[in-house]
Amino acid sequence: MTSVSVLSTEPCLLGEGPLWHPERGGLFWFDILGKRLHCNEAGTTRFWQFDEYVSAAGWVDRDTLIMASATGLWRFDIESGTRTPLAPLEAENAVTRSNDGRADPWGGFWIGTMGLNAEQDAGAIYRYFGGEVRQLIANVTISNAICFAPDGSCAYFTDTPKRQIMRMALDSDGWPAGDATVFIDLNDAGLNPDGAVVDAEGCLWNAQWGAGRVARYSRDGALLSVWPVPTPHSSCPAFGGAKMQTLFVTTAAQGTIDDPDAGKTFSIQTGITGQREHRVLI
Fold this sequence. Notes:
Layout: E1 4-8, E2 15-21, E3 26-31, E4 36-41, E5 44-49, E6 54-61, E7 64-69, E8 72-77, E9 83-88, E10 96-103, E11 109-115, E12 123-129, E13 132-140, E14 143-148, E15 154-159, E16 164-169, E17 181-185, E18 192-198, E19 204-209, E20 213-217, E21 223-228, E22 234-240, E23 246-251, E24 265-269
Antiparallel strand pairs: 1-24, 2-3, 3-4, 4-5, 6-7, 7-8, 8-9, 10-11, 11-12, 12-13, 14-15, 15-16, 16-17, 18-19, 19-20, 20-21, 22-23, 23-24
């Protein structure tokens, strides 16, 4: 039976965006609704409080993150806790906020947005690259599952209410090369795809909101294994640890009643190696 450990007992209303920093050997993650960035390094947890929603990050160097908020992308200094603006992100749209995001193999950063109340088609998916933000996919309700094949051949993403994980071919510079196609259809299973990550073998791990689990799928989209967590709203996985074989999983207390594990952040020893997170070039 899979052993699940608690990394942090600090409950997140909406835990999201776990990021293992390969140079620091620590995990960063967000409580979007709590407007916080959390960090666990060497067993010590700390957090930074913000005045707006924050949701996703990538690592730039040992002491710097790129961080997405409801209004923009920011350069965040880990030691001082200060941030400086890089680019606006739907800054004049009061209806939306940032959601899921991840660095790509070229040093770009993909970031999705969504309505504050999940308004239909209010969000989009963007790529920050070369100092500018370009929209890639429009009319997205809840952007999630942004991740990349190890060889850079494709990107994955989902619009959660559609219950389909999409695959999109990428060109040699990391831009979309053609329309996205359905990679995994979860409608018949009634599952809600949330955040995702791809391991070193090219298999996709998808947290499934409401199901209390992370599911691993082959490069052909076949279900390989299921990794349970002890609370329903599993939101996003990330690989890390000394051997890159620890799966960290954020969860949400939002929408749960009398669940002592809701919103905690968990770790699972998988014996399967994940990808090292790519560095963002800014």
